[in-house]
Amino acid sequence: MSRTYCIPGVFFLFSAFFLLFIVSISLPRFQAMDITRVHSSGQIAGNGYQAFTQLRFGIWGYCVDLSSGRTCFNTGHGYSVTVVNSQNAEITIGPSWTRGLAVLPVAACVAFIALLLSVSQHITVTLVASLVSFLAALLTLIAFAINIALYAYVKQELGTLNISETTVTGPGFWLTFVSLLLLILAGCTVCFGRRRDRMAGATNNSYQLNGLKGGGFLSRFRRN
Description:
Largest sheet: 5 strands, antiparallel
Low-confidence stretches: 199-209, 217-221
Shape: elongated
Number of helices: 5
Order of helices and strands: HEEEEEEHHHEH
Distance between the termini: 45 Å
Strand content: 15-25%
Strand order of the largest sheet: 4-3-2-1-7
Helix content: 55-70%
Radius of gyration: 27 Å
């Protein structure tokens, strides 16, 4: 594969894998890498019915900021969170909205496989690397759609409690989007590099065939 295309393709794949890996660690181990974040003025309480000022949704659990500090819950994927306001009205973010976040680690694994394949100089392997890159991009697209659905649902449900709150997207949300763009670029770059190699090989073969058929300039002066 042409070095001009190989190096950018490997760089895009490595960057995408690195970002997806960081996002996949998520809460509660990496507290800054949440998908959706809720800021409140302390008028709402969570599962423990303690008022909190911030609620963070991650892949493997969630975190709440209480008056005594931040508390994180390692629940595993597919958890639920119940929020109650001062009038005892409550909403629940069920596991059906958080279970799909586990697609992100799967996308990270597929991106890593594509990265390993992209290092090869064999044309067939680079074609497989391109296809695997697009597969990782598809999984990341699905994960990003799940992120959007979770954010929209949390914002909608909290809006029904009539409280002072702000629901925003977390860093993990945007890093997933950046990873999606990088995987698409990587797949296209590797694919174009393979196509250029095939065209270059076909051109060299045609030159060799023409040289054999024509016999060169000196062949005109040979005796019959």
